[in-house]
Write a structure and sequence with these properties.
alpha/beta; 3 domains; five-stranded mixed β-sheet; 11 strands; elongated
Length: about 375
């Protein structure tokens, strides 16, 4: 089954960038529509993705000054593959928007031999002619009048006008960023950009989606960090500290396998603190002691429910142990190792897998009862 899906995906990826069909009802007699369709088809032919530079020529200057990769819909479903490469595209509508903009609404997906439709996304992009009478692309962030911006030297938050963020949370975010910079001696000042919705539906609207396959999952609080744009996208405010950690610290520790553990140490996971995650995992392991924690840790897959990530918890536990031993300097030493084999054999001085499993279970239980 897995192989079939991979083959199907590769087939679609190879062929569908240039294939665009029109939904019935689009007025193809309009000169304006014809120009916009030609522009949109040329944009898709440029194979927009994070590995492409050609697609940037279609975007307006201000958008490119704000984001190194201005099309935020490209990697919201898959961080490696462009949304536009993952299915066939149907232009659903081209409609006038405010202030001389036009909105292009596009569906991405595919159908099978039984006429079932699999929908990946419905995107909204905006075009407007510049002073040279040529169309340029704009994102929802620039055009949607329902979006407001909260800005300081440390951050720039895009959210819906009806969404509120407490002053206490904003102050905590400022203090949190200062702590990260102080702990890790970061001199560079950067303004991180944050797209915040109370839930995935709000977040996708801000980015420019009517529908996104990932927003159909039952994940109560989640986020993603985009280092290229110094951007975090969050559903729910609780994950803001985890994702902010990634933006600031991932560039410093590029080879550690504990990046998620470091973010969980500082900012919890899915809105739940490291200690609460440790307690939850310890209780689970007490009932399922047959699970080999080292095996699950190195496989990077360990699913219990949609609110806890045990792999992040185990990584966070290792970071916590190093911090307990010698603070930030000892933590940095742990983060200098490039794989789990080095971490356990050289840092923790444990040689065999069975001993590592016992060590993880023992430390998990100890921290669950002492923190």
């Amino acid at each position: 089954m897995k192989r079939t899906i991979i083959i199907l995906f590769l087939t679609i990826t190879a062929s569908c960038y240039s294939q665009v069909v029109l939904n019935p009802g689009i007025d193809t007699s309009s000169i304006e529509h014809k120009e916009i369709l030609t522009f949109w088809r040329e944009y898709l032919k440029s194979k927009p993705s994070k590995n492409s530079l050609a697609y940037l020529d279609f975007w307006n200057v201000k958008e490119k000054e704000n984001f190194n990769q201005p099309d935020l819909t490209l990697h919201s479903i898959n961080t490696e593959h462009s949304t536009f490469s993952m299915g066939y595209k149907t232009v659903l509508s081209i409609l006038p928007y405010q202030n001389d903009f036009y909105q292009i609404k596009t569906a991405i997906g595919w159908g099978d031999t039984t006429n079932h439709i699999s929908l990946l996304a419905i995107t909204n992009h905006y075009v407007k002619k510049n002073n040279q009478n040529k169309f340029e692309l704009y994102s929802s962030l620039s055009v949607n009048e329902n979006i407001k911006i909260l800005e300081t030297e440390q951050y720039k938050i895009y959210t819906l006008k009806e969404t509120s963020i407490s002053i206490d949370t904003l102050n905590k975010l400022n203090d949190f960023i200062l702590k990260l910079r102080n702990d890790h001696q970061i001199k560079e000042t950067k303004q991180i950009k944050i797209i915040y919705g109370k839930n995935s539906k709000e977040t996708e609207k801000i980015i420019g989606f009517d529908f996104n396959l990932m927003s159909s999952t039952n994940n109560p609080s989640s986020g993603v960090s985009d280092r290229v744009n110094d951007l975090i996208i969050i559903n729910g405010i609780a994950v803001i500290f985890h994702e902010t950690t990634h933006i600031y610290l991932n560039p410093l520790y590029t080879e550690t396998p504990l990046a998620e553990g470091l973010a969980t140490f500082y900012g919890g996971s899915m809105g739940i603190s490291l200690i609460e995650n440790i307690k939850f995992l310890n209780n689970y392991i007490q009932q399922h002691n047959e699970i080999d924690l080292y095996e699950r840790l190195t496989e990077s897959y360990f699913y219990i429910d949609n609110k806890h990530n045990p792999v992040y918890t185990l990584q966070g536990l290792l970071v916590q142990l190093a911090y307990d031993k010698g603070g930030i300097n000892e933590t940095k030493k742990l983060l200098s190792f490039k794989n789990f084999d080095e971490i356990f054999k050289q840092y923790f001085k444990i040689k065999d897998q069975n001993s590592i499993d016992r060590f993880l279970k023992s430390e998990l239980k100890r921290k669950a009862t002492t923190l």
